[in-house]
Design goal:
This protein is α+β, with helices and mostly antiparallel strands and 687 residues long. It has 29 helices and 14 strands.
Length: 687
C-alpha cells in the first residue's frame, strides 16, 4: 500500500499509522488499546484545535452510551504511553470544562516522503549495528594478528585455533578453567613443546576471548538497554476468566491481591491492589496498563475453576518491549491454590533476578490461613470492601466475619474489618464513637494473632491518630508497619498525614513523595499531597498539585474538595464554591464540601447564602451524621466565634476524626489566641 492510500502522521519522535493501526516511537511499536488508539487518532486529526468531550465521545463510541470517565481514562493512558506527566501538556492539553487539544506539532506524511521514524530509522539502526559488528571484528582480528606475530610455531597457532573453535561451541557462562582443561586434553602432546610458549599462547587466547566477551556484552546492552536485572517495579493485574460468562471477580482480584502481597518487599516494588484493580476489563491491554502504572514488568494471567479443580495460566512480560520473561501453567485441585500462588511468586522473582534472602523465602512461604473456604470468604470481603461505599463495605465486613468463624486465627480478616470500620468515620457514615472502637478491637486482635502483619499496624496507627489523638503511639505503629513492609504506599501516605497534622511539614512532604513514587496513580495520595502543601503554607504549589490530580481523574471528588479549601486561602471564593459543588456532585454522601462552600460564601460577604448552607447542615442530622467540625467551620466563616467554639467542643466530646486538623488548618487562625481554643488544643495533646 502506498502512502497515498495510507493515513500517516508524525509528531515529536512518534509515527501514527492509522491505516495499520500502529503507533511507534523511533521504529519501536507501542501497544495501545482499541479505544485509546481511536482517541489519539481523533486528537491528531484535529491538529492544534480544541476537541470537545461530547465530540470525542460521539466519534469514538458512535451510537453507544458511555460515561466521560471512559474518555478520561483513555487520555490518561495516552499521556503515559507518550511519556508526559499529567498537567504538563507536552502532547495533550486539557481545557477544563470543554475538552482536549493536541498541542504537539503534527506532520502528515505524503507519498514518496521518508518519515523520520520509519525507513530512515531502520536504515540508521542497521548502519549502527553493522558498524558495531565491523568494529568488533576489526578489534578481534587486530588482537589475533598481534598474537600471531608473537607465536611462530605451528603447534601454538593450532592451540589458538582450538580455543576460538571452542569459544563458539560452549556457553558464554562456562568457567574459563573448565575450557582450559578441555583444550589441554584435546591438544596433541609432543616432546618439542615449550611450556612457557604454550602458557603464553593460552594466556593470549584467554585475553582475546575475554575481550570478545566484553565487546559482545557491551554491544548487547547498547542494543537492549533495559535488562531483566534492572526490573524493580511490577504490576500484578487482576486475573481474567478463560470464559467470560464464568467470571468470579472476587477470585480474579484475590489472586492478584495475594501475589502482590507475596512479591512486595525487598528489592521488588509491586503496585498496590487499589491501583491495579481498575484494570480488570476483559479487553485490557496488559502493556498499556503497565505503562500507565509506570512499572517495568507486568504479571497477568487467566483463571478457571471446574468442580474441584482450578486452571491457571500466568505470564510475566517486560513493559518496555513486551518481551516474555516467564510463562507458566497450572492445573491443580482448588485445595492446592496456595501452593500454586507460592510457585508463581518464586518463579516470578527468579525471572526478575531478585535475590531470595532467608527472610524473603519465609515471607513467600507464609500463609495467613490453610483453610481454602476461609480464604475464599476473605477474598469476597476484599472485593466488596474495595467498592468504597457504605453498603458494600458492610457486606465486606460480613464476609470477613464468616472467614473468621471458619478460621478464628485469620489475622488478615481482622485487619480487613479494622480497615472497613475506620473508613466509616472519615466518610461521615457513622460518628467516630460508633465505628472506631470496633476498628481498634479488630486491629489489636490481628496484631495479637500475627505481630508481623504490617496492614494491622497501619490500621492501628490510623485509629490512634484519628481517634485516640495519641500522636507518639500512632507514629510508633506506622514505623513498625514500615519496618515490616518498607514499600507500603498506604503506610507512607498515612504516616505523612500524621506528620503534617502535627506540624512536621518537611517530613510529611518527604513521606508523601515516597508514597507517590511507590504508587504514582493513587488518586488519594496525589490529592493528599495538595492538602499537605496547603497546610505547609505553600498554597500556590497546592493548587498546582491538585490541578494535576484533577487532570489525571476529573471526577475524583477529594481533589476538588481540597482545591476548594486552597482557593479559600487565595481569597478566590467563587472558585472555591464551584470546586466544592463539583466535589458534592461526585460524592453526594459527604458533607465536608458543603461546609467549605458555606465558609467561602460567608468570607465573600454573601451572608444570606452562607446562612442557608448552615441551615442545611443543621437539618441534615435527621437524615445522616454531620460532623460538628463542619458546622463549626461555617459559624467561624460567619464570624460567630462562640458558636464555632461550641461545636468544636462538641466535636471533641464525640471524638470527631476531623478535629485532628485543628493545628494546621489555616481557617482556624483567627481563634488561636482565644482561651477556649488554646485549652482545646492542650486537651487534644497538640500543646
Amino acid at each position: 500500500m502506498s502512502n497515498a492510500n495510507k493515513e500517516l502522521y508524525e509528531f515529536d519522535k512518534f509515527r501514527l499509522d492509522v491505516s495499520e493501526r500502529l503507533l511507534s516511537r523511533e521504529g519501536e511499536k507501542l501497544p495501545l488499546s482499541e479505544k485509546a488508539f481511536d482517541t489519539l487518532c481523533a486528537l491528531v486529526r484535529h491538529g492544534n484545535h480544541l476537541v470537545g468531550k461530547d465530540e470525542l465521545l460521539t466519534e469514538i463510541w458512535a451510537g453507544a452510551f458511555v460515561e466521560e470517565n471512559n474518555l478520561d481514562k483513555n487520555i490518561s493512558i495516552l499521556r503515559q504511553v507518550l511519556g508526559e506527566r499529567a498537567g504538563r501538556g507536552k502532547f495533550i492539553e486539557t481545557v477544563r470544562g470543554h475538552g482536549f487539544r493536541f498541542v504537539a506539532e503534527v506532520r502528515e506524511v505524503v507519498e514518496g516522503e521518508k518519515g523520520r521514524n520509519g525507513e530512515e530509522e531502520k536504515r540508521r539502526r542497521g548502519e549502527e549495528e553493522k558498524n558495531a559488528s565491523d568494529n568488533r571484528e576489526f578489534q578481534i582480528s587486530d588482537f589475533k594478528l598481534q598474537n600471531e606475530r608473537e607465536s611462530r610455531t605451528e603447534s601454538e597457532i593450532d592451540a589458538k585455533s582450538e580455543i576460538f573453535n571452542l569459544k563458539s561451541e560452549t556457553n558464554e557462562n562456562t568457567p574459563f578453567q573448565s575450557q582450559n582443561t578441555k583444550i589441554e586434553n584435546q591438544r596433541p602432546k609432543t616432546e618439542k613443546q615449550n611450556p612457557n610458549r604454550l602458557q603464553l599462547a593460552a594466556l593470549t587466547a584467554l585475553i582475546i576471548f575475554g575481550f570478545g566477551a566484553v565487546v559482545f556484552f557491551l554491544w548487547r546492552n547498547a542494543a537492549n538497554p533495559v535488562s531483566d536485572e534492572q526490573i524493580k517495579t511490577i504490576a500484578v493485574l487482576p486475573f481474567k476468566p478463560l470464559v467470560a460468562e464464568n467470571r468470579n471477580e472476587s477470585l480474579e482480584l484475590g489472586m492478584a491481591d495475594t501475589l502482590i502481597s507475596k512479591l512486595s518487599g525487598g528489592e521488588i516494588i509491586a503496585r498496590p491492589i487499589g491501583s491495579v484493580r481498575r484494570f480488570n476489563n476483559l479487553e485490557q491491554d496488559s502493556l498499556a496498563a503497565g505503562r500507565e502504572l509506570e512499572t517495568e514488568a507486568v504479571l497477568d494471567g487467566t483463571i478457571q475453576t471446574s468442580g474441584e479443580r482450578i486452571r491457571i495460566s500466568a505470564r510475566l512480560i517486560r513493559t518496555s518491549d513486551g518481551k516474555p520473561l516467564w510463562t507458566g501453567q497450572f492445573d491443580e485441585k482448588f485445595t492446592d491454590i496456595f501452593a500454586v500462588q507460592d510457585s508463581i511468586s518464586e518463579r516470578v522473582l527468579s525471572a526478575l533476578s531478585s535475590k531470595l534472602s532467608g527472610e524473603k523465602q519465609k515471607h513467600l512461604n507464609k500463609r495467613d490461613t490453610e483453610n481454602v473456604e476461609a480464604y475464599q470468604l476473605y477474598m469476597r470481603g476484599r472485593f466488596h470492601h474495595f467498592k468504597l461505599n457504605l453498603s458494600e463495605a458492610q457486606k465486606g465486613i460480613e464476609y470477613y466475619n464468616q472467614a473468621i468463624a471458619i478460621d478464628p486465627g485469620y489475622a488478615l480478616a481482622y485487619a480487613g474489618i479494622a480497615d472497613a470500620y475506620r473508613s466509616f468515620s472519615l466518610t461521615s457514615d457513622f460518628p467516630s464513637n460508633d465505628a472506631m472502637p470496633k476498628a481498634k478491637a479488630a486491629a489489636l486482635r490481628a496484631i495479637e494473632i500475627d505481630e508481623t502483619l504490617a496492614d494491622a499496624h497501619t490500621a492501628l496507627g490510623f485509629i490512634l491518630f484519628y481517634y485516640d489523638w495519641d500522636w507518639q503511639a500512632a507514629e510508633k505503629q506506622y514505623r513498625r508497619a514500615l519496618e515490616l513492609d518498607p514499600n507500603s504506599a498506604d503506610t507512607h501516605q498515612a504516616y505523612a498525614h500524621l506528620l503534617s497534622n502535627t506540624g512536621r511539614h518537611a517530613e510529611a512532604l518527604s513521606e508523601i513523595k515516597l508514597s507517590k513514587e511507590l504508587d504514582p496513580l493513587n488518586l488519594r495520595t496525589n490529592a493528599l499531597e495538595g492538602q499537605l502543601l496547603l497546610h505547609a503554607g505553600q498554597t500556590d504549589a497546592a493548587i498546582d498539585s491538585l490541578q494535576k490530580t484533577i487532570d489525571l481523574e476529573p471526577n475524583f471528588w477529594m481533589a476538588h474538595l481540597f482545591a476548594a479549601s486552597a482557593y479559600i486561602e487565595k481569597g478566590m471564593y467563587e472558585k472555591a464554591v464551584g470546586e466544592g459543588s463539583v466535589a458534592k456532585t461526585h460524592s453526594p454522601a459527604q458533607n465536608w464540601s458543603i461546609a467549605f462552600g458555606g465558609y467561602a460564601l460567608a468570607k465573600a460577604g454573601k451572608r444570606a447564602e452562607a446562612r442557608a448552607v448552615l441551615d442545611e447542615l443543621l437539618k441534615l442530622p435527621n437524615e445522616r451524621y454531620v460532623p460538628p467540625y463542619h458546622i463549626a467551620l461555617v459559624y467561624n466563616g460567619l464570624g460567630e466565634n462562640e458558636k464555632a467554639l461550641d461545636y468544636l467542643e462538641k466535636g471533641f466530646a464525640e471524638k470527631d476524626a476531623r478535629m485532628v486538623f485543628l493545628k494546621v488548618e489555616p481557617k482556624w487562625n483567627n481563634l488561636r489566641n482565644e482561651p477556649r481554643f488554646v485549652d482545646l488544643m492542650r486537651r487534644m495533646n497538640f500543646e
